[in-house]
Amino acid sequence: MTTSTAPTAPEAPENTTARRVTDVLQPRNVLLAGMLGIGLAAAGGHWSGLLWGFLGALCAGLIPAGYIEWQRGRGAWGDRHVVDRTKRAPIFFVILGSIGAGSLVMVAGGAPRDILVTMLALWAMTIVLLAVNTVWKISVDAAVASAVVTQLAVVHHPAWLAAYALTAAVCWSRVALGYHTVGQVCAGTAAGMATAAGFLIG
């Protein structure tokens, strides 16, 4: 005797696009590309800036992403999005510890000022996200995308503000997939912009 299961309904076209956008522009990818650019600009175009940028991306994005994958492997979370707000606190603490450690390495190694200040801005942003997350779900993806664009605009060139189109795409994808409300992605965008601009311009 055989049993049959109902076929899975195909994902709506707009959701397929949203899924691709949110996967391509997830924080670890945005941070990897953005921190390399920030590091290079901070070092005045010298190749050593790429090394500092990669260290920043490693600590702010890749290590936290690895932690999430590890927890997924243990069955603690269903996917990388961790849609349950109450389960997000450990991720924020991993991010804070990782960025803190990376910042200390940068200080000890004499990293360019702007890449170090960028790390401190990301650390401060994480504090804000953690605090808000205790009472209300806020979009981390939107915050990271917004922060990186602002940081590139300040450290490299104001023309980078045009990349806020990518931040808008991230926000749209998060809402389209049902992970966040419009208010949550707007709050994340504002948090990323405010902390990045505050540290780098101040």
From TrEMBL:
Task: Please give the residue ranges the record annotates as the region Disordered.
Answer: 1-20
Spell out the protein name for this chain: Phosphatase PAP2 family protein
Please give the superkingdom of this protein's source. Bacteria
Q: Cite the record's Low complexity compositional bias ranges.
A: 1-18
Which keywords does UniProt give here? Membrane, Transmembrane, Transmembrane helix
Q: Which chain regions cross the lipid bilayer? A: 29-45, 51-70, 91-109, 115-136
Q: Which residues form a coiled coil?
A: none
Q: Which organism is it from?
A: Streptomyces rutgersensis
